[in-house]
Amino acid sequence: MYVEHLSLKDFRNYAEAELALGRGANVLVGRNGQGKTNLAEAIAYLATLGSHRVSADAPLVREGCSAAFVRARLAHGERRVTLELQINKQGSNKARIGGSPVRTNELPRYAQVVLFAPEDLQIVRGDPSSRRRFADQLLVQRTPRMSAVLADYDRTLRQRTALLKSARARGMKAQSLPTLDVWDDKLVSLGSEIIDARTRLAQDLARPVAEAYAAIAGEDHRPELEWALSIRGGDPEDGDDHQESGSGSTAELFRAALADKRAAELDRGLTLVGPHRDDLILRVRGLPVKGYASHGESWSVALSLRLASAELLRAESPGGDPVLILDDVFAELDADRRARLAGVVSGYEQVIVTAAVAGDIPEALRENAVRIDAGRVLGPLSEHPLEPSDVSTRLAASTSDRDEEHGA
């Protein structure tokens, strides 16, 4: 699958934009803050139903407008399909496929996109919510119906937590809350499905993550993935990833953990057990990445997670390769990792790369370069080159940043 054409209206800093794309490498070049990442973000939103930069939709809508519009024509072999999305600043979004109205959660069935951006370093270095978000977006891409399961779980969690907060404020005891058992049933049913799906995902990612890491880093540091589950004791959300042994189905363990935490939940007015408090533990050389890995190792793990995601989608999707987007990544890598990454991604049907300086991109990917400036798609870089001052300023900043990040 690849994107042939992208149209934007009132999206981020674009009043209007038309961008033609082709097979192979497509490079979007422009100074920082001109809108390169916004184009990548719009394409990725169709596949993940979310932004990699913000959690709410309102910032995606151009200032002074009530809605943004994204339209993409995708090629699946000889077939063409047009996806349209209306992102509303308030209220539910709307979607169309081939001109016919559909639910927005139908879009990932057609759009397969994997985006890697500097923000992905938070997957390995940030709090557990970053890792849960990574896993859940990939779950939705693999199995679109999981979008509804995750949404139903979030609603159930909010309602159950609201009941706990109300009971705490009124000094009520568990026996005075018969409706809590009803919410427990829904929480266990939906949450168990999410936990099992995440566990399978970690197992499926293990081999491609190890292969991608070795390809990028040039070394085998034995990367590992394992979920720390709140239903097995501890509280991963608070940094306690202790796991107790125990037998039984996920639902049985979940229900037992809720019973064990009931008093603490009423005391704190919080739901303390469930997939919303789990954490994906990442390790290299047998040590947690967070707190132990070097900057280069952390980048390699984050990249490996995205490349492994692309490999899973490539293997499972009847539409073939996902679109692979590398947003301002090469400037953050040393020369060896740049070359290795270029070699890994060059076989994908479509790769979209953003960069402030085309020279940051290995020659093998430096095709179809387009100049982006102040929310405008100007055209081929050969016809709209960057000013020398732009290049020299960016190169000086880039060199300084890399010396600081990749120094001793």
From TrEMBL:
One of its GO terms (biological process) is SOS response. It comes from Microbacterium stercoris. ATP binds at G30, R31, N32, G33, Q34, G35, K36, T37. It comes from the Bacteria. InterPro entries: AAA+_ATPase, DNA-binding_RecF, DNA-binding_RecF_CS, P-loop_NTPase, RecF/RecN/SMC_N, RecF_2. Keywords: ATP-binding, Cytoplasm, DNA damage, DNA repair, DNA replication, DNA-binding, Nucleotide-binding, SOS response. PROSITE patterns: RECF_2. Residues 381-408 are annotated as: Disordered. GO terms for cellular component: cytoplasm. Belongs to the RecF family. This is DNA replication and repair protein RecF. It is found in: Cytoplasm. NCBIfam families: recf. The RecF protein is involved in DNA metabolism; it is required for DNA replication and normal SOS inducibility. RecF binds preferentially to single-stranded, linear DNA. It also seems to bind ATP.
